[in-house]
Amino acid sequence: MRLLTILKLIQLPAALALGPGDADTMFKDFNSAFLVRSGGDIFYKEALNNGNQSATWSGSLNILGAQDAYERTGDPETKTLINELLTTWLKANPPNKNDDPNPDPWDRNGWNDDLGWFTLALIRGYQMTGNEAFLGPAKSGFDYAFRRGWDTQYNGGGIWEENPKYAAPKEPNKEALSNDSLGKVACLIYQSTLDRSYLQKAEQIYAWVSKNLINHSTGQVNTGIYMNGTRNTATAVYNQGTFIDYANLLYTITGTRTYYDDAKKALEFGRASLTTNGIFSKDANHINTWADEFARGAGHFVRDNGLWDEYYSWMVSNADFILKNRRSDLGITWNAWDKPTPSDASLISNKFVSAVAWLQYTPPVIPGKVGGIHTIVNQRTGMAIDSAGEQENGAKVVQWGVNDSLNQRWLLTQNADSSWNIINLASWKALDFPGESKADGVEMVLWTANRDENQRWEIEEQEDGSYKISNLASGKVLDDGSGAENGTVLVQNGWSGEEGQRWVLQ
């Protein structure tokens, strides 16, 4: 890391409160400061005064920030940007160079958390763009890290932070940084492929982390454990946040309550013990990002589980400090959110991405009760929308008696145009209006999530507390198909206001 040589502080604007457009502006300003287009390549540069491509794992951290912006908005231009960023990144960091069976330059050192960040950006990129060129390296990179890193000789398992043959003469250890990042990757690969071997590995890693690195009485995530069993009890905000996101992923995938409880306790510890007066702040020179993973962990956990009443004001307080302490000339904020951002051009781009991430997960107004995980029940039949255990594209979506299975659990997330994505937690497919026909009676299906208009839904509360669910592409509403039997396929129809077109979110 470069030493902080200039601490000349710029004049700051008056304190600002979070408002509409601030998340867009923060991402735009980050891009204006660091995004480079050169000879067909697109990448984030190392620093304001260093135009070289932010390399390997540090480049991945910047790309993850762009992915946060797309996750919030579903903006097609940002999807294109992510595709271009990852294509350029893979060009600079090819996973199979010179027919080497091991990833190169991915194996040039033994740091398994590096592979965690590589593959995390790639698998998220695959989920967002559908580009198969990202899925293969994500899988092979995870497989390689797990194959070389998982060790049962010491500590009963766990993934080495740096593999012993590379670490010598230092004593190797197993850290949250490598285990939790790769555990997240395994979860996302499972969501993308439904290959249960990845879910099994995700749960295997988590069980080891839970036993060896988590203080369950406080929620603290310890840094790591050495070969002799001695624990490194130091803390880091990014470790705390990665674990929260990991636990929440496993909760959404499995429905196992222990994962929810672990995530919540870790979030509480982070808020109470890793902040200064409730605000995340780190000005250390050797730190790249700081709170970006906490933004994802807290953002996903709060959104998915409808916990806005409990955490929203605190999230906004952090966002307000980010806005207050921006550079007035560039609009970017460093890791120390409670201090004015210095005008040092040598500060690396990673130091500014945590602020971008936090704003993507903190809405300008407190969200209502539509978002998060729900069972969606028809008002007429009392039956739930169900994926019927199907996992293939084109499978029909039906109604079934309420049973609280994953087939009946749907994650509702919002786009920038206020429409909603409706994702099934058993298949990880989206509720989709197929084809181009806008005729009444067209049957609804499952399809790989792409956030196109045929997967975007307007959800409007009615006077009786039920919801009208309308497809953005067809303009028609979700209808129970006039049946009351298990397996009745859902269709679209013109709005009549009848009970068969009204849905209750549970």
Describe what you observe in this structure:
- This protein has helices spanning 22-34, 56-73, 76-92, 112-129, 132-149, 164-167, 176-193, 196-212, 237-254, 257-273, 292-304, 308-324, 353-360, and strands spanning 35-38, 41-47, 50-53, 173-175, 214-215, 220-221, 224-226, 231-232, 372-374, 376-378, 383-386, 398-401, 410-414, 420-424, 430-432, 445-447, 457-461, 467-471, 477-479, 488-489, 491-493, 503-505.
- It is an alpha+beta fold.
- Helices cover 39% and strands 15% of the residues.
- The chain has 13 helices and 22 strands.
- Strands 1-2-3 form a three-stranded antiparallel beta sheet.
- The radius of gyration is 23 Å and the shape is globular.
Please give the structural blueprint:
Blueprint: H1 22-34, E1 35-38, E2 41-47, E3 50-53, H2 56-73, H3 76-92, H4 112-129, H5 132-149, H6 164-167, E4 173-175, H7 176-193, H8 196-212, E5 214-215, E6 220-221, E7 224-226, E8 231-232, H9 237-254, H10 257-273, H11 292-304, H12 308-324, H13 353-360, E9 372-374, E10 376-378, E11 383-386, E12 398-401, E13 410-414, E14 420-424, E15 430-432, E16 445-447, E17 457-461, E18 467-471, E19 477-479, E20 488-489, E21 491-493, E22 503-505
Antiparallel strand pairs: 1-2, 2-3, 4-7, 5-6, 7-8, 9-13, 10-22, 11-12, 12-20, 13-14, 15-16, 17-18, 19-21
How is this structure best summarized?
The chain has 13 helices and 22 strands.
Relevant terms:
506 residues; alpha+beta; 3-stranded antiparallel β-sheet; 39% helix; globular
Biggest β-sheet strands, sense, barrel:
3 strands, antiparallel
Could you estimate the helical fraction of the residues in percent?
A: 25-40%
Low-confidence stretches: 1-15
Task: Tell how many strands the DSSP assignment holds.
Answer: 22
Rounded Rg = 23 Å
> N-to-C terminal Cα separation, in Å?
49 Å
What's the total helix number?
13
Q: In percent, how much strand structure appears in the residues?
A: 15-25%
Structural class: alpha+beta
> Looking across the biggest beta sheet, what order are the strands in?
1-2-3
Q: What characteristic shape results from the CA principal axes?
A: globular
Overall mean confidence score, pLDDT:
94
